[in-house]
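Structure ticket #2291
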Amino acid sequence: MKKRYIMAPGPTEIPAEVLAEGGKPILHHRTPQFRKILTQVEEDLKYLMQTKETVQVLTSSGTGAMETAVANTVNPKDKVIVASIGHFGNRWASIAKIYGAEVIKIEAEWGNAMDPAEVKKALEENKDAVAVFTTHNETSTGVYNDIEAIGKIVKEYDAILVVDGISGIGALPFYTDKWNVDMAVAGSQKGMMIPPGIATITVSPKAWKVVENNKQPKFYFDLKKYEKSMTEEKLGNTPYTPAASLVMQLGAALNIIKEETIEKVWERHEKLAEATRAGVKALGLTLFAKENASNVLTSVYVPEGVDGGALMKKIRDDYGISMAGGQGPVTGKIFRIGHLGYTDRFDPVIGIAAS
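Resolution: structure written out below.
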């Protein structure tokens, strides 16, 4: 027998209480029993995402929530700014282009964070931009952006700030309202500690004005339908069939987070990251992130002469540990150790030992 571990930056390991919830009989999504659960989940998501605004629950991957954000805010030929520091920042640009936007892309070298001054410069040069899209935690590099600083800049312009918080929310400090984030998206298989299949999105009053004026054709990802279901119909209602079992599991996971408190969750991730990076350095390996190293994952250079893909396969096959390789221009050059979600202080030891 070989025990298997997930030490990738998502999907993550799942607590026993959450697994047990997924094994319960499914509830019909139009019953008072289920609506009560979903209503509580939506309230608890406000705590997780640190917002007073409604949090919409989507049955999709995190990328579905990213597309929702674009589809509800960007009209064809609208100008948008994408501040990218890696693979998932580039995804914002790809989605926006599909919806007909004129994309002004500013980039930081992979392994670096975005300089907020570059965002301000782009806004000054493009004052007609309707939105700034960026990433909280760039999963492809293990670097996080200073969203607080970027938020202070964007709020002075007409543009809204839209943030991919998929891998960071629930692991890194994130204050949707205090940091002036107009739309934040998150995914269930990261810091939320449940299987993939649910995404969440917040919408500020400033962003709702943009949504109300949006003319982009859409059906499933129409935020106005989700808002109508929750306000004009019944609390805990959705316009389409939700992933009912995942919603129940999310409720259990959010209870765990509330019991630990979000501040303690953030502190735990910080300690896990420090321990992992100390172990990596002790092995004589080199860290990839040059600045703003993330508490979600640790990115490490593959030693010279070693095949990165073969290394990941060997760790998985010999030790039962799933880590992640590099993406895009760093494919085969780095590997990534996840330490987010349901991870305790002994887990990094296992990952380092396998490395």
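Closing remark: The first strand starts at residue 5 and ends at 6.
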